[in-house]
Write a structure and sequence with these properties.
With 256 residues, chain A is mainly α. Chain A contains 12 helices and no strands. In chain B, α8 packs across α9 (235-255). Chain B is globular. Classes of the chains: A mainly alpha (256), B alpha/beta (256).
């Protein structure tokens, strides 16, 4: 009960901060303090958002499809790599530095290359998303596997458990919270990755839409699409939280 | 008849001898304590009997079969309960049955009837974080027991299982333990540094002293089981305690 109350009060603070900023923004553009063409007021943005809604939905479906396919493949790749590197130390030593290296290459730098190689369709976008999303998953899982309790592993060994049983009963469930921490990051990377790769070429998607309205100097539409992208990211993160609660019921029970 | 036999076991780490020429025997349904100061090689011996480490010399026999360095033959329990936080108590105690290849439903069916016997009713669906330390140790013992009945070899190794509990909980769990042991037949090797606990629970006590650790004395506790509630307040109890203390403190002074 007390916890709930704290939750509500903390929400009151953050909500009022947002409202305050919106009020200042609205007055600034309504009074002509800033040019409404350069910085459209919140009300204007909402109006444009409603007017453009069908178009925005059409584009976001494409972006979301890319993000989901890329994320799914990224999770799969991250998972397989983490498991292999956990089970075979040689693979860990050989590939871990390489994996870290892939993350030092900026996304924006390889995106044009991917477009040149794979064209303007979905493939280069999905590849880019896979490259950016597998990393947090793989590193999170590996950390989780490595921090498995040695005594618990010995206990299972004494019961005669094999390495895959130890993996299934101890290592994997023990790494779930790290996995979800990685997934939360990867989910937001997936949307951003999709948008960035669409900037560099494509026929549909929120990134393509953004470059178009930018060329038309439609600042209000720019704001509408930024607004939409952050909503999508927020929803995805909420979705991950929900999934985590479903998959890890013991965490919720412990809170009681 | 002896169910477990340790013969002339020695073990060194980094050319430092930890235990030397240890021989002991465990008879059916008996509880034998291994009593000694901390760091005296009790846990080393324990790991050898559990098959987690291989002795430099000597062998371990279970039911007349040589099991030296072979894991998966006897079950053990530690000071840490090692219950997995993400499994319910029922699934935790049924874990050894699962490791030994039983289906989930079948394993649960076997485990459930023992909850009443072990005083664990009502905890089946709870997670470890939701029950008290004493209850967790009970669950850990039930898990150990289920392993031994599935293997058909009712031998258990207990390494200071109650030493993390506060004094009152410990007293209560001792009573509970003696009570449960009346109902089930479990031949037990009990490692402890608590003299009172050893006298209270054991049929026989081996004193492990010196560096490297050697068994220097064997004490038979003649008090019949089930034991009187006030056994720990009697003359006989004190006499046993005096003998042990004289022996151990001599060793302690020698060593420093």
């Amino acid at each position: 009960m007390k916890r709930k109350l704290q939750n509500i009060t903390s929400k009151i603070w953050s909500c009022s901060a947002i409202v305050l900023i919106l009020i200042i923004w609205q007055t600034a553009s309504a009074t002509g303090l800033v040019d409404p063409f350069m910085l459209p007021s919140p009300v204007q943005v909402v109006q444009v958002f409603i007017r453009e809604f069908p178009t925005l939905m059409e584009h976001s479906l494409v972006t979301l499809a890319e993000a989901f396919i890329g994320l799914a493949l990224g999770i799969l790749l991250g998972f397989v790599m983490a498991v292999l590197m956990d089970q075979y130390e040689g693979l860990y030593k050989a590939f871990y530095p390489l994996i870290v290296l892939t993350q030092t290459v900026p996304t924006v730098a390889i995106a044009p290359l991917l477009v040149l190689w794979f064209g303007y369709e979905m493939t280069p976008k999905v590849i880019l998303i896979v490259i950016t999303t597998f990393f947090p998953i793989a590193v999170g899982l590996l950390n989780g596997f490595n921090s498995a309790d040695k005594d618990s592993i010995n206990l299972l060994r004494a019961m005669g458990a094999g390495r895959w049983q130890i993996f299934g009963y101890i290592k994997f469930p023990g790494a779930l919270s790290e996995f979800f921490a990685g997934l939360r990051i990867s989910a937001s990377y997936a949307v951003v990755g999709a948008v960035i790769s669409e900037w560099l070429g494509g026929f549909n998607g929120l990134g393509v839409y953004m470059t178009r309205v930018k060329k038309a100097f439609s600042f209000d539409k720019m704001f509408a699409v930024i607004f939409l992208i952050s909503i999508i990211s927020l929803l995805l993160m909420k979705g991950v939280d929900f999934l985590q609660k479903k998959c890890m019921p013991w965490e919720r029970e412990n809170g009681l | 008849m002896s169910v477990l036999k340790v013969e002339g076991v020695s073990k060194s780490f980094d050319s430092e001898k930890i235990i030397e020429n240890i021989s002991l025997e465990l008879h059916e349904g008996e509880l034998v304590s291994l009593l000694g100061v901390s760091g005296g090689g009790k846990t080393t011996l324990f790991n050898i009997i559990a098959g987690l480490s291989i002795p430099d010399e000597g062998d371990v026999w279970l039911d007349g079969e040589k099991v030296t360095g072979q894991a998966g033959t006897v079950s053990y329990m530690l000071q840490k309960d090692l219950l997995l936080p993400y499994r319910t108590i029922l699934d935790n105690v049924a874990l050894p049955l699962r490791v030994l290849g039983m289906k989930k439903k079948e394993a649960r069916q076997i485990a459930v009837p023992y909850f009443a016997e072990f005083g664990l009713e009502g905890t089946e669906k709870k997670y470890p974080a939701q029950i008290s330390g004493g209850m967790k140790q009970r669950a850990a013992l039930l898990r150990t027991y289920l392993f031994s009945i599935k293997r058909g070899k009712k031998v258990a190794l207990l390494d200071e299982p109650f030493s993390a509990l506060d004094m009152l909980t410990k007293q209560a769990i001792h009573e509970w333990y003696l009570d449960v042991m009346e109902k089930i037949q479990l031949s037990t090797i009990f490692v402890t540094h608590d003299i009172d606990e050893a006298i209270l629970l054991s049929d026989r006590i081996y004193l492990l002293t010196g560096k490297p650790g050697v068994i220097t004395k064997e004490i038979v506790i003649k008090e019949p089981k089930p034991r009187r509630k006030d056994f720990h307040l009697t003359e006989e109890f004190l006499r046993y305690k005096r003998t042990i203390l004289e022996h151990l403190s001599y060793d302690f002074v020698e060593k420093r």
